Amino acid sequence: MHSPVSSAFVLAMVALQPAAATAAESENLRVCADPNNLPFSNSAGEGFENKLAEMVAQAFGKAVVYTWWAQRRGFIRHTLKAGDCDLVMGVPAHYDLVETTRPYYRSTYVFVSQTARHLHLDAIDDPQLRSLAIGVHLIGDDGNNPPPAHALGQQGIIDNVRGFMIYGDYREPDPPARLIEAVEHGEIDIAAAWGPLAGYATKKSKVPLTVTPIVAGERFAPQQFQFEIAMGVRKGDHALRDRLNDFIAQRGAEIAALLQSYGVPLVEQRLSSATGEHR
Description:
The protein is built from 8 helices and 13 strands. It has helices at residues 6-9, 48-60, 75-78, 147-154, 178-184, 195-204, 238-250, 252-261; strands spanning 2-5, 28-33, 36-37, 41-42, 63-68, 87-92, 99-100, 105-114, 134-138, 161-165, 190-194, 209-213, 226-233. The two termini are 18 Å apart.
């Protein structure tokens, strides 16, 4: 979720033990997803999480069935917790309120600007940012906003920053895309956005856009701009988690190719020498 991760982006989630049949007992792969959240998922099955769910289902000899719900606060409560579905295709790795698989990709927040502007900007503390109209996603009024918004605020860069609600107007297609469209239309000079969303929107833009991973120095530690994304199941559903881990390990190249086809900027995953696990 993205956000980061919209996925990001990455929303507050809660989970509960299963109240219905487990995934292993079902002939279907029961997936919890947002019907209006490209590039991740939509009801037409056009997102990369939709395509990934189809890959998993095929490997498991199952058919994908969806429980649709807007991916915001209450998403897990109304889907996974309710026992209506068994799998969320994108959650932050090691998220402690659901059972997470090994990560299947790592991405980063990025700057997006019109290529013709030649801004050549990658650092979140670049002095140029003080004189540019900057767009960032906002999640709410409780301070739980993405890293670029926090980092800019810490530098006192406020007056020239324009916030775009990550939830947006849900009556429109793919509400988070409004931020990148503002760059495309020249309404702002540069956007700081979660990589998967930015990369996909850039591929669809009629104006050439440049996507540059954001570089953050020690000044903003422990503020992170890169996140690993995993799949999530209900706590205690080790059987499904383990099957998914095997799938991710065996199909890593295919998963990476799928993500790249959607413009997702991929960052090499780090391996812990102590445990052998991806971090």
